[in-house]
Design a protein that fits this description.
Elements lengths: L4 H24 L2 H21 L9 H18 L3 H18 L32 H22 L6 E2 L2 E2 L4 H22 L1
Antiparallel strand pairs: 1-2
Length: about 190
């Protein structure tokens, strides 16, 4: 992942923890939630692998991430899981953005037509990776998803039973993992 290690390591821990919980939940949870928990767990572990701060990642890693997340996105589309398809597509997009040089210039380090090094803006700051419009749309999608899922996560005052809140227990934790992964996706898009 691009960006400082102090951002990458917490993302790795967050995503790996959420992925491990979801995979355990896929074995012990209710049958109706097992498939979704398995998908969430695998996506979270993939996010953890992609967020791993590496000084010099292998040259083949972005292409491997693109292939794996592209296949996961197609699988999610075939199963009509739109959110998983968008998430896998965003991960494939970020993997491609890691490989391709930022900005409109040539390969990184070569000057463009204006005498600037590729990947640098007119003000001398690093240009964003990827396509800014697509990155912006993905940021909006995941922001709305995190806010919506977070609001649904908060227990309603009316939805309590004598034994405690109606949403207490492991299903609430599974939804919290989804919110955490959405926040992780936002952080990775912002670091792009």
């Amino acid at each position: 992942m691009h960006g400082p290690p102090w951002v990458g390591w917490p993302l790795v821990l967050l995503c790996a923890g959420a992925g491990a919980y979801c995979l355990v939940r896929s074995r012990t949870g209710p049958a109706a939630e097992r498939g979704a928990a398995r998908g969430e767990g695998l996506m979270a572990l993939g996010m953890a692998a992609m967020a791993w701060p590496a000084a010099a990642p292998p040259a083949w890693s972005p292409w491997l991430f693109t292939a794996v997340f592209g296949a996961a996105g197609l699988w999610a589309l075939a199963r009509r899981h739109l959110h998983h398809a968008v998430g896998a597509g965003a991960m494939a997009y970020m993997a491609l953005a890691m490989e391709l040089p930022p900005g409109q210039g040539g390969p990184a380090g070569h000057p463009d037509g204006m005498g600037r090094a590729a990947g640098m803006s007119a003000m001398g700051h690093p240009a964003p990776g990827g396509v800014p419009l697509l990155t912006g749309l993905l940021l909006v999608y995941f922001t709305v998803y995190v806010i919506g899922a977070g609001v649904r996560l908060a227990p309603a005052a009316v939805a309590t039973v004598p034994d405690g809140p109606a949403d207490a227990g492991p299903p609430g934790v599974l939804r919290a993992c989804r919110v955490a992964m959405g926040i992780g996706m936002l952080a990775m898009l912002l670091a792009l």
